């Protein structure tokens, strides 16, 4: 089981699955993007998310490694109760020079499970000068990384939120969110909420405890929300339960420093420049007419497959055309984009069969694929001139899941000069897919 835990601890949702989710989300007219706190909470349950996604979309996926571990997090049953913070160490304030503030902590019983819609979302990193104006009093004592998020439409753009990570020298990292009006709190407190008074500002503070993980260890998460000059603030700090007193000292100090420093100067973000953004659903004719990528869509599909939808997406990180066809529970997901530097690690020669031949790695691949090869084995990229039918067959496998339709599955990319086609297929024979790829551009 340790291999499984290590494997899922390095798991992220695949790009192909992310694109399918994004495509379905656009049916409501906007892209759903989770708030930053919810993205962190989602990371705690990443292994479960992969299993749910596999059930929803009928795929067996070998995840790409992530940069961070994914500790488990589950709701804690019990009765809500206010808790007074434990006494802080008498020597800590003298060592750090940071005052501490007592907070009344309300116990959270559960976490919210929701996403938010940011229409016309774009973002940028804050400069050090901007950080000092948004977080007065923090920049001299904390290492800060901050991103400002905007929403936009035809009438212009406006501030949506500021997300930041702050850590004192050698200390734990906290999350801070600032938003016009209210900053969303990601935890549910049942019953009456008791506020704290910090320098004349009402602060709603609380804590959440996870259930023990496989090693019997629990996490504790402290959170607080308050308002200053029409801006909502949300602060969060989590870590091992064994260090909860130290975490609480740091957390209460940070809340006090934010209030003592005064409200953020958000006039910096009054007139942002809007980058090129596009999130447009298309029919097949529109997709094939796209001047950048349309010519790289297949001219025909295997018998029985019907066109479902296409998406043309552009933001600061991505620029692609994505289309999907379906047949029962089968599908062909087809993305076209420009080959980027980050794709280099997945580009492989057909001579290096250890990088792509699934016959070498029996299921469960959590145990059979070496960690250093997971990215390329999961989704290798081949140059079109090197691609052979045998290579496509080497990427093909079948699994028998209850309630699912049997059929060949495959996932890989093909490079045409500087244009990358990425495929995720279920229910089409390797011979058919190989011919589709050979016909591109002819």
Based on the model shown, name its key terms.
about 450 residues; alpha+beta; 2 domains; 10-stranded mixed β-sheet; 7-stranded mixed β-sheet; 12 helices; 21 strands; about 25% helix; about 30% strand; disordered N terminus
Question: Can you offer a commentary on this structure?
Answer:
It is a single chain. The protein has 442 residues and is an alpha+beta fold. It has 2 domains: 82-269, no CATH class; 276-439, no CATH class. It has helices spanning 2-9, 15-25, 36-44, 46-57, 92-96, 128-134, 244-261, 284-288, 365-368, 374-378, 389-394, 430-439; strands spanning 32-33, 82-84, 104-107, 110-111, 116-117, 122-125, 142-153, 156-168, 174-180, 187-188, 196-198, 201-209, 219-228, 231-240, 278-282, 306-314, 319-327, 330-338, 381-383, 409-416, 419-426. The strands form 4 sheets. Strands 2, 3, 6, 7, 8, 9, 11, 12, 13 and 14 form a 10-stranded mixed sheet that branches. The two termini are 49 Å apart.
Cα(first) to Cα(last) distance is: 49 Å
> Main beta sheet: strand number and arrangement?
10 strands, mixed
The proportion of residues in beta strands is 25-35%
Number of strands: 21
Global morphology: elongated
Low-confidence runs: 1-13, 20-97
How many domains, in number, for the residues?
2
Helices, by number, come to 12
Average pLDDT over all residues: 80
- Helicity, as a percent range: 10-25%
Supply Rg.
Answer: 25 Å
Which class of secondary structure composition applies to the elements? alpha+beta
Mind sketching the topology for me?
Blueprint: H1 2-9, H2 15-25, E1 32-33, H3 36-44, H4 46-57, E2 82-84, H5 92-96, E3 104-107, E4 110-111, E5 116-117, E6 122-125, H6 128-134, E7 142-153, E8 156-168, E9 174-180, E10 187-188, E11 196-198, E12 201-209, E13 219-228, E14 231-240, H7 244-261, E15 278-282, H8 284-288, E16 306-314, E17 319-327, E18 330-338, H9 365-368, H10 374-378, E19 381-383, H11 389-394, E20 409-416, E21 419-426, H12 430-439
Parallel strand pairs: 3-12, 19-20
Antiparallel strand pairs: 1-5, 2-3, 4-10, 6-7, 7-8, 8-9, 9-14, 11-12, 12-13, 13-14, 15-16, 16-17, 17-18, 18-21, 20-21
């Amino acid at each position: 089981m340790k291999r499984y835990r290590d494997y899922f601890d390095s798991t992220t949702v695949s790009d192909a699955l992310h694109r399918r989710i994004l495509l379905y989300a656009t049916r409501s007219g906007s892209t759903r993007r989770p708030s930053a706190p919810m993205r962190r909470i989602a990371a705690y349950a990443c292994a479960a998310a992969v299993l749910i996604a596999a059930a929803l979309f009928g795929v067996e996926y070998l995840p790409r490694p992530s940069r961070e571990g994914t500790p488990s997090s589950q709701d804690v049953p019990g009765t809500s109760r206010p808790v007074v913070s434990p006494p802080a160490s008498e020597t800590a304030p003298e060592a750090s020079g940071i005052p501490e503030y007592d907070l009344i902590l309300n116990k959270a019983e559960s976490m919210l499970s929701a996403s938010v819609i940011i229409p016309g979302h774009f973002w940028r990193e804050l400069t050090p000068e901007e950080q000092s104006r948004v977080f007065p009093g923090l920049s001299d004592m904390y290492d800060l990384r901050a991103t400002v998020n905007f929403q936009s439409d035809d009438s212009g753009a406006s501030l949506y939120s500021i997300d930041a990570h702050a850590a004192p020298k050698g200390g734990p990292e906290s999350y801070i969110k600032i938003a016009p009006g209210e900053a969303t709190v990601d935890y549910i407190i049942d019953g009456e909420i008791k506020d704290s008074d910090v320098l004349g500002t009402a602060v709603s503070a609380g804590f959440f405890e996870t259930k023990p993980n496989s090693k019997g260890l629990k996490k504790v998460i402290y959170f607080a929300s308050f308002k200053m000059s029409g801006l909502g603030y949300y602060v969060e700090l989590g870590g091992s339960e064994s260090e909860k007193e130290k975490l609480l000292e740091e957390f209460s100090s940070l809340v006090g420093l934010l209030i003592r420093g005064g409200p953020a100067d958000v006039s910096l973000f009054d007139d942002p420049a809007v980058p090129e953004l596009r999130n447009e659903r298309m029919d097949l004719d529109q997709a094939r007419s796209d001047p950048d990528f349309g010519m790289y869509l297949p001219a025909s599909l295997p018998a029985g497959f019907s066109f479902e939808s296409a998406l043309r997406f552009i933001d600061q990180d991505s620029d692609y055309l994505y289309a999907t066809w379906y047949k029962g529970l089968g599908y062909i997901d087809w993305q076209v984009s420009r080959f980027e530097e980050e794709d280099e690690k997945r580009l492989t020669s057909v001579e290096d069969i250890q990088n792509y031949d699934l016959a070498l790695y029996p299921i469960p691949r959590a145990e059979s694929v070496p960690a250093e090869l997971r990215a390329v084995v999961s989704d290798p990229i081949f140059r079109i001139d090197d691609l052979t039918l045998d290579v496509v067959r080497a990427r093909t496998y079948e699994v028998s899941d209850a309630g699912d339709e049997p059929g060949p599955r495959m996932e890989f990319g093909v490079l045409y000069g500087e244009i990358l086609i990425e495929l995720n297929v279920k229910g089409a024979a390797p011979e058919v897919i190989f011919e589709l790829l050979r016909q591109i551009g002819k």
